[in-house]
């Protein structure tokens, strides 16, 4: 933006006049208006106060006598004053007494204030106390509109603005017209000055306009012009003189330059053509004047040639940048040269170029230095080659394990020795050989004067012999020969190798060979040796006699040997031979048949080894033995046949067992299925309860025995695997106690248990198998005990692991009985299968496999089942197991399915797939009463068709069926898009876990083994179909009718029962119940009810029951 | 001690409440109003330099309970800068020195004689009986719409040496 200074004088003048006018007018008007408005305001306030006081005065009596009508009448007088918008009278307590409002719009009465006035929100607010005879009768409040005031301000503003505008226009008019008096002469002067400076004509003069300051300025300007004009003329003359002098100088410079360029040219020629590389540098200093780097000033062509750097690229570059090192190369040397002027020289090797350079440095001028470098690679390479050759020679000779020395043939002076020689004889170079090496000689010996080495002045060749030092016993292999020495004379080179060791070995070998020969003759084995390359062979005499021939009856060749080999074994022979040739092996061992002289085949075991190789490593000689193994071979064959037969039989047994198990379980499925159905039928149960129970128990027993046999066969086949889960230890033990108690009660013996106070809540292990072991031991104990007791003891052993934060717990499980016991001699065999310790008089049921299975299962768990017993004194079985503690597991309370009558919600469709009629019927009978819609299919193929038509929610799928089995059916079902999510539960009588895994892989969601247990089936249906069962109500009703007749035990006992129930401590609960039963006879019904619940683990019901009755109490 | 006094007073008040026939609050209001009248009335003694130690005397004549309430209302209060004395008078001889005379309804029959006796005295006569104002009592209470109001006999005022402020007249019913 243009600043005020840059305005023309004319504009400046106009601007100043206008500014003055506007500011004076503005200040004047503003003062007038402010004054006027203040006056107006004061008037307004005093008027309002007068009104307030008057009205207040009038209202005194109304306030005194609390006459509101009078007060209102007084206030209404305000209506004549249009400015008063609102008024209020307050009694002395400050409560509004009477209110007046100009408009009907209701307005909030402000809280009373002390005497005050203020302008806000467009109103004047006045509070005035009403005082009469020095006593305050109340307060009046008036609200006056300030509209007149605002109106007045507006009027003032408009007037001022219009007045200001008019005055500004006047000022502008005068300013424009009058400014010319001042600005015109200045403008004229300015224009003239511009003209002079542009044209350089100083003869022009300014015309004077008056006698004021501008007039004086014109005069002065004119006199100044005259002076400039004179000065200019003088300057022109001086300039001409300077020009002349300059031209002369120029000529001189040109001459001098020509001379210099001649010299420069000479130097340049030298610079560019010299064979050495040359570079000129200058040091660079840092702020502290310390040299830090150098810059390249110039380089010659050879520099470029040697360094492969372009001149243009390097000139002016810093060395540190160019060579990429800091400090730059050889900086300390260069710095010294450049600063002291003393030249330097050194040799360097440039690895990237593979060249050696000799660098000479000198300083052409202070701070500069030139480097001359010469390629000395060739010389260096030659030097190095020589040094290397020397090193190699020394390395070879010094590393030889032989004494090497060179001696003069005339003087016998030792000229050269290797390290070996030096180690033996010391530094003997320059001494005489017969005095040093052959110490003890009086003159040159036969070694020194070997005449065979030279003939007609030429070396003959190597002369070798072996020599034993009679003093040390060492053997040496001596090689002597004449060679030409450096100076051309013939000298003797001797190489003496110590072969004492070889001599020893040779001797030992001789003895060993003799031994071997004798040994081979002693055994009946034939010996052979063959040459792999030529086919020549050697066969020992025994080799021939072994085959019924006399020694050397056939020629000792590979050919004749092969002709005797059984044609079927030739390939084997060939392969073994080939393997040796290809060096895949260095020995062979094979069994072949060979023809004896009598024409029979005889089995030979041939074992051989490569004992010698050719120079290039090919196998040369193979040596070995042949043993007649005909008898052994016959035995082996027999054994093999026998083993095969046994394996076939064993496999047949396993298959038979699996099939039998399946076949046996299939009818059991129907039997146990129907007994379960019958047991649910109350009518049937009342009449045939006992028979049905007997059938069911017999079925179960049969099933148990089948399972036992199967388990054993699985264990024997090594097919039994543990399946580890997380399980709740207390619940597990409670169930066990429950089952054992029932059995003990039946035999009228007591059952005791002792569990540790601290136990992990849940552990990881095979719950099923552990239960099997313990149940087996417990039922055995009950079985063999007729009076006394059976005890289950569980102990935890603190094995110090707790200290290591290990989750492992060691448990000892003991089962003790007071039964018949086991005699010492039978203790050994009780763990063997099919043994049962019992006297023939006792009728004991069972397969007798239990202990064998238990022992095997304990073994599988990595422990041992122990027994301690004496005849008639009972037995104790125990074993230790380690289980890792795990996070708590969900324990769902088992809800009995006995009382199910149906389920809530929509009808579910179930497809039953089984090829056997009885199984289908049994499942239909089991499920139909609960309202399932059921369809059936006879095999997998049928099931696919039915499933598409019927669209079931769930399929119960038998796995073994004709036409299409269950696995295939499940796979196919999963491929049908709209049946992809149908729930499939596999049913199988197969006893192998693998079946279950396979069925899940095939696409089944669940697995039920046959015989099908109703509870298991319902549990599966419940979880998969998310069923909510409906239960029979009758029991509940009967209970509630009884409720009132209970006698409630004391609060303390109820507390204890609740505590035990909440802790789910079934054993504690039962013990306490037992205790209560003995003490309190009045509450027997109440206790009995809780006992009843405790039998079914119905903790919730116990809690509910106690809570209900506790409230009554 | 204060508490005990208060108890006695409350007990006394309740006893009065039982015995009196007029509703108690009316007396209380009237007592307060009488005090307020004094503010709008100017007695001749106010313009002269009379003895400030003389009490301001309110006299009651006739059967009435107002005296108790008046005493209560005037306790520790001053009228025109003087201590207040409330007294009951039996005969008109005792009217000397009174500033206000309350004439009870029981005096209805001898009202004329009472008024005649104090005709030229600067005494503000107050009544609480219909027709008293017409008969010449200066201020007379009456009930209107459950509020106690009063009337002023303006002609008697003019004749009297008492000056009554227009403020009082503004809220009174004027009887001529």
TrEMBL record, chain A:
| Signal peptide feature range | none
Tell me the ranges covered by the HAMP domain, including all copies: 180-233
Ranges for domain PAC come to 588-641
Localization (cell): Membrane
Response regulatory domain boundaries: 909-1025
Instruction: Give a yes or no for keyword Kinase in this entry.
Output: yes
Residue ranges of the TM segments: 13-34, 156-178
Look up the EC number in the record and give it: 2.7.13.3
Catalytic activity annotation:
ATP + protein L-histidine = ADP + protein N-phospho-L-histidine
Sorted alphabetically, which NCBIfam families does this protein's record hold?
sensory_box
Q: What is this protein called?
A: histidine kinase
UniProtKB/TrEMBL annotation, chain B:
| Signal peptide positions (record) | 1-20
Return the InterPro entries for the record. Answer: YfiR/HmsC-like
Q: Which UniProt keywords apply?
A: Signal
Q: Identify the domain of life.
A: Bacteria
Any Pfam family the entry gives: DUF4154
Please report the name of this protein according to its UniProt entry: YfiR family protein
């Amino acid at each position: 933006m243009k600043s005020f200074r840059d305005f023309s004088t004319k504009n400046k003048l106009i601007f100043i006049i206008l500014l003055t006018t506007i500011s004076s007018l503005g200040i004047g008007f503003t003062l007038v208006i402010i004054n006027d408005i203040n006056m107006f305001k004061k008037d307004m306030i005093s008027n309002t106060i007068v009104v307030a006081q008057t009205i207040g005065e009038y209202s005194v009596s109304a306030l005194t006598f609390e006459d509101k009508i009078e007060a209102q009448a007084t206030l209404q007088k305000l209506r004549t004053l249009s400015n008063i918008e609102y008024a209020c009278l307050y009694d002395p307590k400050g409560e509004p007494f009477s209110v007046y409002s100009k408009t009907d719009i209701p307005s909030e009465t402000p809280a009373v204030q002390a005497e005050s006035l203020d302008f806000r929100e467009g109103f004047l607010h006045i509070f005035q106390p009403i005082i009469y005879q020095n006593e305050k009768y109340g307060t009046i409040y008036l609200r006056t509109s300030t509209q007149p005031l605002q109106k007045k301000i507006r009027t003032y503003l408009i007037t001022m603005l219009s007045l200001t505008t008019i005055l500004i226009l006047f000022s502008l008019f005068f300013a424009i017209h009058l400014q010319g008096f001042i600005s015109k002469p200045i403008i004229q002067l300015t224009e003239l000055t511009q003209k002079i400076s542009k044209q350089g004509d100083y003869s022009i003069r300014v015309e004077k306009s008056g006698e004021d300051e501008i007039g004086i300025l014109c005069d002065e300007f004119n006199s100044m012009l005259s002076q400039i004009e004179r000065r200019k003329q003088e300057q022109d003359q001086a300039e001409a003189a300077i020009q002349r002098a300059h031209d002369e100088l120029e000529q001189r410079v040109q001459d001098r330059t020509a001379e210099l360029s001649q010299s420069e040219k000479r130097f340049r020629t030298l610079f560019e053509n010299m064979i050495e590389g040359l570079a000129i540098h200058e040091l660079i200093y840092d702020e502290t004047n310390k040299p830090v780097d150098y810059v390249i000033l110039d380089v010659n062509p050879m520099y470029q040639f040697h360094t492969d750097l372009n001149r243009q690229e390097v000139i002016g570059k810093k060395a540190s940048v160019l060579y990429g090192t800091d400090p730059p190369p050889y900086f300390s040397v260069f710095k010294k040269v450049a600063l002291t002027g003393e030249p330097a020289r050194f040799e360097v090797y440039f690895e990237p170029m593979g060249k050696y350079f000799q660098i000479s440095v000198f300083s052409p001028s202070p701070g500069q230095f030139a480097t001359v470098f010469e390629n000395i690679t060739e010389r260096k390479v030659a030097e190095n080659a020589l040094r290397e050759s020397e090193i190699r020679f020394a390395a070879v000779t010094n590393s030889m394990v032989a004494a090497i020395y060179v001696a003069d043939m005339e003087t016998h002076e030792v000229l050269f020795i290797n390290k070996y020689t030096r180690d033996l004889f010391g530094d003997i170079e320059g001494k005489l050989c017969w005095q040093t090496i052959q110490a003890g000689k009086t003159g040159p010996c036969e070694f020194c004067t070997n005449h065979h080495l030279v003939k007609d002045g030429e070396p003959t060749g190597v002369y070798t012999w072996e020599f034993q030092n009679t003093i040390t016993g060492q053997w040496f292999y001596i090689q002597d020969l004449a060679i030409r020495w450096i100076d051309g004379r013939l000298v003797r080179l001797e190489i003496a190798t110590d072969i004492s060791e070889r001599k020893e070995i040779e001797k030992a070998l001789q003895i060993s060979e003799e031994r071997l020969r004798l040994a081979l003759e002693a055994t009946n084995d034939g010996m052979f040796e063959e040459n792999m390359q030529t086919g020549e062979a050697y066969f020992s005499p025994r080799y021939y006699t072994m085959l019924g021939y006399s020694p050397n009856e056939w020629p000792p060749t590979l050919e004749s040997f092969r002709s005797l080999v059984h044609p079927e074994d030739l390939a084997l022979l060939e392969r073994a031979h080939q393997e040796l040739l290809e060096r895949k092996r260095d020995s062979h061992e094979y069994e072949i048949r060979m023809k004896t002289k009598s024409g029979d085949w005889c089995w030979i075991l041939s074992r051989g080894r490569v004992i010698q190789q050719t120079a290039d490593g090919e196998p040369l000689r193979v040596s070995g033995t042949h043993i007649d193994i005909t008898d052994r071979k016959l035995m082996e064959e027999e054994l093999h046949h026998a083993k095969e037969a046994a394996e076939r039989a064993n496999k047949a047994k396993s298959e038979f067992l699996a099939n039998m198990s399946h076949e046996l379980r299939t009818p059991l499925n129907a039997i146990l299925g129907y007994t379960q159905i019958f047991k649910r039928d109350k009518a049937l149960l009342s009449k045939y309860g006992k028979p049905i129970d007997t059938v069911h128990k017999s079925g179960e027993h049969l099933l148990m025995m089948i399972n036992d046999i199967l388990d054993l066969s699985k264990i024997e086949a090594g097919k039994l695997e543990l399946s580890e889960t997380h399980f709740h230890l207390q619940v597990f033990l409670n169930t066990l106690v429950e089952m054992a108690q029932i059995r003990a009660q039946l035999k009228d013996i007591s059952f005791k248990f002792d569990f540790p106070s601290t136990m992990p809540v849940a552990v990881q292990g095979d719950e099923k198998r552990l239960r099997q072991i313990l149940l087996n031991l417990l039922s055995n104990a009950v079985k063999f005990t007729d009076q006394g007791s059976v005890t289950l003891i569980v102990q935890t052993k603190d094995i110090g692991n707790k200290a290591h934060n290990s989750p492992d717990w060691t448990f000892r499980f003991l089962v003790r009985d007071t039964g018949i016991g086991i005699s010492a001699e039978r203790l050994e065999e009780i763990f063997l299968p099919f043994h049962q310790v019992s006297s023939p008089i006792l009728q004991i049921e069972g397969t007798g496999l239990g202990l064998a299975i238990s022992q095997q299962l304990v073994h599988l768990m990595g422990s041992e089942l122990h027994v301690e017993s004496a005849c008639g004194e009972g037995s104790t079985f125990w074993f230790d197991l380690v289980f890792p503690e795990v996070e708590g597991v969900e324990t769902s309370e088992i809800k009995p399915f006995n009382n199910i009558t149906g389920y809530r919600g929509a009808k579910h469709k179930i497809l039953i797939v089984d090829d056997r009629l009885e199984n289908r019927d049994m499942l239909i009978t089991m499920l139909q009463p609960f309202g399932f819609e059921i369809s059936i299919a006879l095999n997998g193929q049928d099931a696919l068709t039915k499933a598409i038509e019927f669209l079931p929610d769930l399929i119960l799928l038998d796995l073994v069926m004709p036409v299409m089995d269950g696995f295939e059916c499940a796979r196919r079902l999963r491929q049908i898009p709209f049946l992809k999510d149908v729930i499939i539960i596999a049913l199988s009588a197969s006893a192998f876990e693998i079946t279950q895994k396979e069925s899940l892989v095939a696409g089944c969601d669940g697995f039920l083994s046959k015989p099908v247990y109703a509870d298991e089936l319902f549990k599966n249906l419940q979880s998969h179909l998310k069923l909510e069962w409906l239960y029979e109500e009758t029991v509940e009703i009967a209970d509630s009718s009884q409720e009132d007749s209970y006698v409630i035990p004391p609060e303390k006992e109820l507390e204890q029962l609740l505590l035990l129930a909440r802790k789910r401590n079934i054993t504690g609960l039962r013990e306490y119940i037992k205790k209560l039963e003995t003490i309190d006879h009045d509450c027997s019904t109440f206790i009995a009810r809780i006992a009843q619940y405790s039998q079914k683990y119905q903790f919730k019901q116990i809690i509910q029951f106690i809570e209900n009755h506790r409230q009554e109490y | 001690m204060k508490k005990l006094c208060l108890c006695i007073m409350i007990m006394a008040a309740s006893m009065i409440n039982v015995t009196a026939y007029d509703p108690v609050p009316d007396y209380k209001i009237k007592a307060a109003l009488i005090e307020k009248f004094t503010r709008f009335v100017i007695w001749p003694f106010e313009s002269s330099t009379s003895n400030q130690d003389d009490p301001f005397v309110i006299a009651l004549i006739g059967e009435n309970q107002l005296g108790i309430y008046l005493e209560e209302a005037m306790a520790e209060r001053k009228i025109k800068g003087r201590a207040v004395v409330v007294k009951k008078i039996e005969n008109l001889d005792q009217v000397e020195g009174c500033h206000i005379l309350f004439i009870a309804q029981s005096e209805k029959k001898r009202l004329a004689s009472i008024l005649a006796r104090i005709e030229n005295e600067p005494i503000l006569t107050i009544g609480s009986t219909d027709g008293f104002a017409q008969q010449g009592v200066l201020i007379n209470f009456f009930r209107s719409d459950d509020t106690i109001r009063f009337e002023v006999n303006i002609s008697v005022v003019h004749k009297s040496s008492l000056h009554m402020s227009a403020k009082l007249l503004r809220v009174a019913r004027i009887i001529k």
